Amino acid sequence: MRRTVTYLADGANHEEVQSALEELLDAFDLEVETRGPEIRGSFFQWLKLRLKRVFTAEELTERLQRVERGFELHLLHKQQAEIDSLQSDAVAKLVTALRDERSALIQIGSVLLIKVDGALTVRNLTQLEMHHLERNASLLEQPDKILGSLESAVRQARGTEQAQAERLTEPTRTEHALPPAGPRA
After folding, report:
1. What is the pLDDT of residue 142?
2. C-alpha neighbours within 13 Å on the C-beta side of residue 12
3. Is residue 160 part of a domain?
4. Do residues 71 and 65 touch, judged by C-beta distance below 8 A?
5. Residues in the chain with pLDDT values less than 70
6. Which end of the chain is more exposed for a tag (fewer CB within 10 A), N or C?
7. What pLDDT sits at residue 170?
8. pLDDT at residue number 180
9. Element (H, E) at 91
10. Rounded distance, CA 108 to CA 6, Å?
11. How many domains does the chain have?
12. Is 153 left (phi over 0), alpha (psi -120 to 50) or beta?
């Protein structure tokens, strides 16, 4: 099972965004199993998803990559024949539904869509980044801070890995105690 998170700074048209999101999920054979509570003022809600049919890990990864690719194609205004019209229409509707939001964040599995000051960014999260978001869930309500936090987590992990590698390659220094100098018996 997967989960998606939606954060909208204004939330004025959250119904249109949620409808477009559910169309997108449907286009990729996902459906909402459980809905978290809506938090108004801004809008924040999580959805627990289930697959309409059983997929292999490869098929699921491929579908999430296709969602990401659909966002990229829409944002770059490129059309490619292999993109299924249903899927690209669903992505376009979601992007259009976000038009009046100044800030938004939608996470679908490893795909992260962020809108800050009108600029949309879509990226595929690494396992390390997804783990960081699980430990720091409040970032899902901070589209303007999430990328910096993810970059910091990656830098910190790389620094830790590098320090561990250096410790493993350092020559070990062994000191031997010498007997005190003086007359021997």
Report:
1. 92
2. 7
3. no
4. no
5. 1, 41, 74-88, 169-185
6. C
7. 64
8. 59
9. helix 85-97
10. 9
11. 1
12. alpha
